[in-house]
């Protein structure tokens, strides 16, 4: 087992890089929770020009070492490890679907957990405990129940928001809560998503208080009747920008398509620029006996590299950054 909490060389600090369908993360192990990373440092690490480059930063910490982890342990005592997730701009996010798969793969890769084929590991997140099952080279996560974020706002067609992207008329969207917020815009079937300009953040109205991830999706009719229907999707992630894939976004999109398209299928393929994931819906009995519909997300996770963060980089908070550095961090 790697003693990954101790600096590898001097004050350098070991990190790993991994991705799930092209949604990429810098990961590091901090079992005892002694390496809190500031928002500025996170933004620096995730910066693609001046840092390592990633859509998010993931810290693996024992649940018992974080207040939110201790709370979670009272109803999920098996959740030994907590995924402390930060977006590329340094903000904290409640949940990351691709991140959970990569997080578990990371724990296995560095020997902090074991997960034989077909078995399940529970991990802590700010959106609750998530059960992850290993299936070949894939991981499937029980993401828990999805819900409409603003049912009281629904208009006749079922949508509850307007979304504008640069240079186009506002389109109608549906807000879905997957533990983190999403607004899904469904375009007509077989639409090309390529012309959408996602270089700038889409404007969502009413503006969600905590911000939102925005997905654009289109149902394709190329599906073979024996395989799940295919939805194509692009995403603009809150506090990041356009990414190659978003796991919670894929789940929110499948839920929205199911509501708005009239197709009640329980299984869907969501095809994103970084690759496909499988989303399925299953009714589960909760602790109080109530039956709720859970979403399951299945896809790959890969480790790419590991290395050491230079102490010079680590001291970034004390280093009086230049105006140019601050501009880069803000991006
Ligand atoms: N890429 C993630 C979502 C990461 C968090 C998101 N940007 C947010 O702020 O909610 C995924 O795979 O779910």
Descriptive overview:
This protein has 331 residues and is of the alpha+beta class. The chain folds into two domains: 13-136 and 304-330, Roll (Diaminopimelate Epimerase, Chain A, domain 1), CATH 3.10.310.10; 146-280, Roll (Diaminopimelate Epimerase, Chain A, domain 1). Helix content is 17%, strand content 39%. It has six helices and 19 strands. The chain has a 19-stranded mixed β-sheet that branches. β6 and β7 (138-145) form a beta hairpin. The protein is globular and about 55 Å long. 43% of the residues are buried.
What layout of secondary structure does this protein have?
Elements: E1 13-20, E2 23-29, H1 39-46, E3 56-62, H2 67-73, E4 81-87, H3 97-109, E5 120-125, E6 128-135, E7 138-145, E8 147-148, E9 161-164, E10 171-177, E11 181-187, E12 203-205, E13 213-219, E14 229-237, E15 241-243, H4 247-261, E16 267-272, E17 275-285, E18 291-300, E19 302-309, H5 311-314, H6 323-330
The chain binds ligand LBFN2T5F.
Ligand LBFN2T5F is lined by residues 23, 56, 87, 93, 96-99, 180, 213, 237-240, 243, 246-249.
Looking at this protein, list some descriptive labels.
331 residues; disordered N terminus; 2 domains; DAP_epimerase_AS; EC 5.1.1.7; single chain; lysine biosynthesis; binds the ligand N[C@@H](CCC[C@H](N)C(=O)O)C(=O)O; alpha+beta; Diaminopimelate Epimerase, Chain A, domain 1
Short description:
The chain is an alpha+beta fold and 331 residues long.
Assign an overall shape. globular
Q: What ranges have pLDDT less than 50 throughout 5 or more consecutive residues?
A: 1-9, 318-331
CATH topology of the largest domain: Diaminopimelate Epimerase, Chain A, domain 1
In CATH terms, what is the architecture of the largest domain? Roll
Query: If you compute it from the alpha carbons, what radius of gyration comes out, rounded to the nearest whole angstrom?
Result: 20 Å
Bound molecules: the ligand N[C@@H](CCC[C@H](N)C(=O)O)C(=O)O
Instruction: Output the CATH class name of the largest domain.
Output: Alpha Beta
Subcellular location: Cytoplasm
EC number: 5.1.1.7
Catalytic activity: (2S,6S)-2,6-diaminopimelate = meso-2,6-diaminopimelate
Subunit structure: Homodimer.
